[in-house]
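Hello again, I could really use a second opinion on something today. I've been puzzling over a protein and I'd love to understand its fold better. I'm sending you its amino acid sequence along with the backbone structure tokens. It would help a lot if you went through both lines with me. I've dropped the whole record in just underneath, so have a look.
***
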Amino acid sequence: MNYVGMSFGFHDAAVSVVDKNGDILFAGHSERYSGIKHDKHLSYGIIQDAKDYINDEVELHYYERPWLKFLRQVRSGENPSFSQLFPRTHLSTGAYNKLGNKKIHTHGHHLSHAASAFFPSPYEEAAILTMDGVGEWSSTSIYLGKGNELNLLQEDLFPNSIGLLYATFTAYCGFKVNSGEYKLMGLAPYG
């Protein structure tokens, strides 16, 4: 059994394939395939390169829970796209056909961040802090990783978010949100 982890539909689409022992068999970033900075689409090319590990013995996993994100966007007055509730609508036709009709398991956004930090690490036990704009409702979370488990210890919820505050300053300085934050970080030492 292999596991395919996917992120697409927002920014920086990527796919990885991990075996049952946790060894990374394949990892790719869509930007490297398309040449489009922060490409949100999971293209056929990236799936084609991962094809040796994608067969009937795989589980598909998606990095967030779309229906919770959709609910937050509706409740906060945003104008979300109904299509985002269905991750497959963001796949290219070729990628969609290659993945077939397999069920896509969804996971919490911050849990996905914590897992991507902890599980490839050499540590058997660690505290994991995730901070970003917002994932579904969570903006900051603390997990305890132990063995093959992650347990949520504490979280801050939208709209309380250091990440969104940082994004606001990024926009105020004239940079594109979810793209130009590194420029703002680079300017910070200059006051």
Observations:
- DSSP finds seven helices and eight strands in the chain.
- The beta strands are 2-7, 14-19, 24-29, 58-62, 104-106, 125-135, 138-146, 149-157.
- Residues 32 and 39 are 9 Å apart (CA to CA).
